[in-house]
Design goal:
The chain is mainly alpha-helical. The chain contains 20 helices and 6 strands. It comes from Moschus moschiferus.
């Protein structure tokens, strides 16, 4: 069969194309479908073979179209399409199929070829040959893929695909980090985290790990503070008329930590949030005053929680003296966890002060405004070392403010801070090892990803049904 014929079998060409594509909107001159029709097939010798061939051709072509659509995720061109136009059952099925195939476990004698292809495919503009060690690979337009991923992050499966590509394909990761419009990718990820109450925990994890992977790159950490944003409508706590992408990222991650502290109390989520902030801390630049305030406010919340646990432990110990039969709650473990988080926050603040003090007068202002918060940690054995620089900065600038007199305006205080930064000898700040964290998958990642992918297939696939009572791979009440 060929695309030059006006009929395919018993059907006019345009009718056959509609049947083949599963849509009424396909054009007879569509280059993609015509290219598929240009493939040659052996001539059928019977009506049964003709029918089987037609069904097989439709199946194969739909699969190919799906794999094409998964990378365009509904179609990406120079014109931005409406959300309703981008939603495509075929794209969704194809994406789910790709995720299932990519997460198949390796055979004993051969690695998963689909995962190999995902790990190694290149940009169509890359003319370098594939290494002979890579048997399964292909090329695709990275710009189209990038734009599609930016537009489709509202779904779990699109975010999981983005994670898979960033984590496993160095070509994609290098390309994305070199983009000058990273806000188009980062903003949808931040919006997922911002609406954490409405998202399932797996979607939040994937979004957070994507940020962690991005913050491993120093170039990314610098560039996000140079991108200025206006009127972030989905951020409702405060009107942000203008803020850098970096400051917004800090705000959203801190909000996620605070939500986790009061609701889910997931240590894994805490760890990854703090790791992303730590990776960024040495490159904090021109922090928005609200971002600086929220950093100190989070430390205040942690400090209050620390004092509360200490008080509960003391009262419990006193009560146990009169009754040896009552088992003590494990306050030591709770205290250890909260002190680990407090130390990490102090390390993040310290990293900013030692590496970019002169870029962040708003953070110095916030520290001075809440200086009493840090008093109890100056002599604490777990924090004495990391408190040295913070205490030095607070003492130095407090002294300069006292010399300037009382009743100082905010503008005057910031002016004194900016002048003081120049006068503060840098060699007085103690150097600490650079804060750097790298995302590493668990030892058996398939235990997380395979049930997750199949739960997405169960909940999102169109026209497929499984009996809920027979499902054993994941729990039906899992979010």
């Amino acid at each position: 069969m060929g695309s030059n014929s006006s009929r395919i079998g018993d059907l006019p060409k345009n009718e056959y194309l509609k049947k083949l594509s599963g849509t009424e909107s396909v054009s007879e001159n569509d280059p993609f479908w015509n290219q598929l029709l240009s493939f040659s097939f052996p001539a059928p010798t019977s009506s049964t073979e003709l029918k089987l061939l037609e069904e097989a051709t439709i199946s194969v072509c739909r699969s190919l179209a799906g794999l094409w659509t998964v990378f365009t995720l509904g179609g990406v061109g120079s014109k931005v399409a409406a959300a309703s136009e981008l939603s495509s059952p075929l794209a969704n099925q194809s994406l789910l199929l790709l995720l299932v195939l990519a997460n198949l476990t390796d055979a004993a004698d051969a690695p998963n070829p689909y995962r190999q292809a995902i790990m190694s495919f290149k940009n169509t503009q890359d003319s370098s040959p594939f290494p002979s060690s890579i048997p399964h690979s292909f090329q695709i337009n990275f710009n189209s893929l990038y734009m599609a991923l930016c537009e489709q992050q509202t779904s779990d499966q699109a975010t999981l695909l983005l994670y898979t590509l960033l984590h496993q394909n160095s070509n994609i990761r290098t390309y994305m980090l070199a983009r000058t419009d990273m806000e188009n990718l980062v903003l949808p990820i931040l919006e997922i985290l911002y609406h954490v109450e409405e998202r399932n925990s797996h979607h939040v994890y994937m979004a957070l790990i994507i940020l962690l992977i991005l913050t491993e790159d120093d170039g990314f950490n610098r560039s996000i503070h140079e991108v200025m944003l206006k009127n972030i409508t989905w951020y409702s706590e405060r009107v942000l008329t203008e803020i850098s992408l970096g400051s917004l990222l800090i705000l959203v991650v801190i909000r996620t930590i605070q939500y986790n502290m009061t609701r889910t109390r997931d240590k894994y989520l805490h760890t990854n949030c703090l790791a992303a902030l730590a990776n960024m801390s040495a490159q904090f630049r021109s922090l928005h005053q609200y971002a600086a305030q929220r950093i100190v406010s989070l430390f205040s919340l942690l400090s209050k929680k620390h004092n509360k646990v200490l008080e509960q432990a003391t009262q419990s110990l006193r009560g146990s003296l009169s009754s040896n039969d009552v088992p003590l709650p494990d306050y030591a473990q709770d205290l250890n966890v909260i002190e680990e988080v407090i130390r990490m926050m102090l390390e993040i603040i310290n990293s900013c002060l030692t590496n970019s003090l002169h870029h962040n007068p708003n953070l110095v202002y916030a520290l001075l405004y809440k200086r009493d918060l840090f008093e109890q940690f100056r002599t604490h054995p777990s924090f004495q070392d990391i408190m040295q620089n913070i205490d030095l900065v607070i003492t130095f600038f407090s002294s300069r403010l006292l010399q300037a007199g009382a009743e100082l305006s905010v503008e005057r205080v910031l002016e004194i801070i900016k002048q003081g930064v120049v006068a503060l000898p840098k060699d007085r700040l103690k150097k600490f090892p650079e804060l750097k964290f790298k995302y590493v998958e668990e030892e058996q990642p398939e235990e997380f990803f395979i049930p997750y992918v199949w739960s997405l297939v169960y909940s999102s696939a169109v026209g497929l049904y499984w009996n809920p009572q027979d499902i054993q791979l994941f729990t039906m009440d899992a979010d």
